[in-house]
Specification:
Distance between the termini of chain B: 48 Å
Mean pLDDT of chain A: 93
Helix content of chain B: 25-40%
Number of strands of chain A: 12
Number of helices of chain B: 11
Shape of chain A: globular
Largest sheet of chain B: 8 strands, mixed
Order of helices and strands of chain B: EEEHEEHEHHHEHEHEEHHHHEE
Largest interface: A-B, 47 and 46 residues
Radius of gyration of chain A: 21 Å
Low-confidence stretches of chain B: 1-7
CATH class of the largest domain in chain A: Alpha Beta
Distance between the termini of chain A: 41 Å
Largest sheet of chain A: 8 strands, mixed
Number of strands of chain B: 12
Number of domains of chain A: 2
Shape of chain B: globular
Order of helices and strands of chain A: EEEHEEHEHHHHEHEHEEHHEEH
CATH superfamily of the largest domain in chain A: P-loop containing nucleotide triphosphate hydrolases
Oligomer: heterodimer
């Protein structure tokens, strides 16, 4: 077995709101192996972004109240802010959904892309800029030397996301966290950016955590995936297995509820009834049980843990852990 | 609910004629610049569109942001007055109708918006939001009005008691149901659905799609369904029109568009849409477009797609390809179509 690059153990992140404590991340554990692309899927409020932000220690105003994030033998939740800055942007880079708000509008793009190498490698402005221009070209920005002198507003959405990716890569980080990197983009531009991320993964060997709500994106990008619901991982496993044979009723119902472009006949969709849970007032037992068509009595009482179900998958579900197959009309 | 009213609009029109007929429609918005705010150009949001919407069908309208699909939808129901061209509704030219007549027309048409958070007035109760169109058109008063509001809430799958509550008490999906109830309040014939599910969570989208489909068969509604998600559009639509930079590039029944796209833009759009199935995704051939959409202020000469088109030749820059028939109900605007 290869040593995991990043290990998240029983992570808990909470937010204090006027309505009460929100457990945004509630006992999440996973590993990221070198060179792989891991998908985290879920709907808004499931905790997927807060998980990523907590890894980067950018979770404020949320608080990490438990667990470890192990990277290169140290627990990133315990190191000083100074040590954290040495890792952030240098060894673990992050790109966000909205590339406009993540770029500073008053600095030239080349200067911003060069910032990580100036800061982390102590390169002088000239050398850092040359490397930034090189990287802008490698992520597919035409006439990179000239465009480096432009400001962010002079770039389109897709081009800005390329700039963000270039900025993330200048220090050749080992981990890239991409939080909904294509959600704000049009589909043809989304295809370009996903293609770029695949290319980055191959060429630089960067291990990637891809956070998305789009199951199609995960299907084409990730070797492994985790499905989150109400702050917890409810299913995890190799992408092919999870799609072919989901072991959690949430994954199972979600896959059946989305219209597919390649559907041959028009059949009514099978929606998940009910609403996503209120995080301040979660139901007892399994958070999905009020919407679950397979629920048994125990689901309303006890919280299931994420356990091995089948050969390659893990699921947090009393029903499948007891050996029941998920089937339905 | 009673049968659709306002029959006086229809003259020689019969159900076999198109409900909406758009010809050579242009909507240009001025671009102002400098201290004097002089008009320096125009955004060609919709630039010569011919389109029919049949009674009772769902016509899907897809395209990327800025292609003019929302502007086209709003112009069809006269929220925007077009720069040129005509819009006919039930055979009648409504391009420039005003005031009283426009109000009568608005009883036949309604709109559902993308953002259920922005499209509902936070200071109005749900009952008043749904009641407003009833009041504006004087459709019911007092007890009868209350009963209709409750009925509309039931129709969209909500508890009638919610009439006294405020929008902020509801989730995105429930708010979209309220928006749908408001649209139904005038008993319209045509509903423009402008990205009605894009802002909703994945697990809620199917609920709203099914609701829209059920309402359509129950009330014999015609939908213009505007969205950027081709999987959803293909699911809900009878026919799909693909727009790019203000023009229709291709129009065809959904299945045909998917199995045999003729326009290279449609082809690349289809191949860009991820399919939630790793087995298919991994061996899919991708046709990744280069570059970005050109500016709608100064669109490319000839075919607007030529700047990104892998098949473009010289001729494409010289002449605008017309929408030509490729079999029954299938049209595409391309000189060098896909096989």
């Amino acid at each position: 077995m290869t040593q995991p690059l990043l290990e998240v153990q029983d992570l808990h992140t909470v937010f204090s709101t006027k309505d009460g404590l929100v457990k945004a991340v509630d006992g999440v554990s996973f590993e990221l192996n070198p060179g792989e692309t891991l998908g985290i899927v879920g709907e808004s409020g499931c905790g997927k972004s807060v998980t990523a932000l907590s890894i980067m220690r950018l979770q404020r105003p949320g608080r990490i109240v438990g667990g470890k994030v192990m990277f290169k033998g140290q627990d990133m939740t315990r190191i000083s802010e100074y040590e954290m800055r040495e890792i952030r942007g240098r060894e673990i880079a992050m790109i966000f959904q909205d590339p406009m708000t993540s770029l500073n509008p008053v600095y030239r793009v080349g200067w911003q892309v060069a910032e990580p190498t100036r800061l982390h490698h102590g390169w002088d402005a000239k050398r850092a800029l040359a490397s930034a221009v090189n990287m802008l070209g490698r992520v597919g920005i035409p006439s990179a030397a000239a465009r480096a002198r432009d400001y962010p507003h002079q770039f389109s959405g897709g081009m800005r996301q390329r700039v963000m990716i270039a900025m993330g890569l200048t220090t050749t980080p080992q981990v890239l966290i991409a939080d909904e990197p294509t959600t704000a983009l049009d589909v043809t531009i989304q295809a370009q950016i996903l293609d770029l991320l695949r290319h980055v993964n191959r060429e630089f060997g960067t291990a990637t955590i891809l956070i998305t709500h789009n199951l199609g994106v995960v299907a084409g990008m990730c070797q492994r995936l985790m499905v989150m619901y109400a702050g917890k991982i409810v299913e995890a496993g190799p992408t092919a297995d999870v799609f072919a044979n989901p072991k959690h009723p949430y994954t199972w119902s979600l896959l059946r509820s989305i219209p597919r472009l390649d559907a041959e006949r028009h059949e009514p969709l099978k929606p998940i009834e009910g609403l996503p849970p209120n995080l301040v007032d979660l139901p007892n037992g399994c958070a999905f049980h009020p919407r679950c068509v397979f629920r048994v009595e125990r689901c309303q009482r006890d919280v299931p843990s994420l356990l091995q179900v089948g050969d390659t998958q893990r699921a947090a579900c009393w029903v499948t852990q007891a050996g029941t197959e998920l089937k339905g009309a | 609910m009673p049968e659709t009213a306002v029959k006086h609009l229809s003259r020689a029109w019969t159900v076999n004629d198109p409900l909406v007929s758009v010809s050579d429609l242009k909507v240009w918005f001025p671009v102002a610049s400098g201290m004097m705010q002089r008009t320096v150009g125009h955004v060609h949001a919709v630039d010569g569109v011919d389109l029919d919407i049949k009674a009772g069908e769902t016509l899907g309208l897809v395209g990327e942001s800025g292609c003019g699909k929302s502007t086209l939808g709003r112009t069809v129901i006269r929220l925007i007055e077009p720069t040129a061209g005509t819009v006919k509704f039930k055979g009648e030219d409504i391009t420039h109708v005003r005031r009283g007549h426009l109000r009568a027309l608005r009883r036949e048409m309604a709109m559902i918006f993308q953002d259920p958070y922005a499209s509902l007035d936070p200071r109005q109760t749900v009952g008043d939001i749904i009641g407003e169109p009833i009041d504006v058109h004087g459709l019911a008063k007092g007890k009868e009005r209350q009963e209709r509001i409750r009925e509309l809430l039931r129709v969209v799958g909500m508890n009638p008691r919610y009439a006294d509550r405020y929008p902020h008490e509801f989730s995105g999906g429930q708010r979209q149901r309220i928006g749908i109830a408001r649209a139904l309040a005038v008993e319209p014939t045509l509903i423009i659905c402008d990205e009605p599910i894009s802002a909703l969570d994945v697990s809620i989208q199917a609920q709203i799609i099914n609701l829209l489909e059920n309402l359509q068969s129950k009330f014999k509604l015609t939908y213009l369904f505007i969205a950027h998600d081709l999987s959803v559009v293909k699911h809900i639509s009878n026919r799909i029109a693909v727009m790019y930079l203000g023009k229709i590039m291709e129009i065809a029944p959904g299945g045909q568009l998917y199995t045999r796209p003729r326009h290279p833009y449609t082809g690349s759009l289809l191949s860009a849409i991820p399919i939630p199935d790793p087995k298919i995704e991994l061996r899919r051939e991708r046709m990744i477009l280069q570059g970005d959409v050109a500016s709608p202020v100064s669109p490319p000469s000839g075919c607007r797609f030529r700047t990104r088109c892998p098949r473009a030749r010289e001729h494409c820059a010289e002449e605008v390809p017309p929408l030509e028939a490729f079999g029954d109900e299938h049209k595409a605007a391309c000189f060098y179509p896909l096989d």
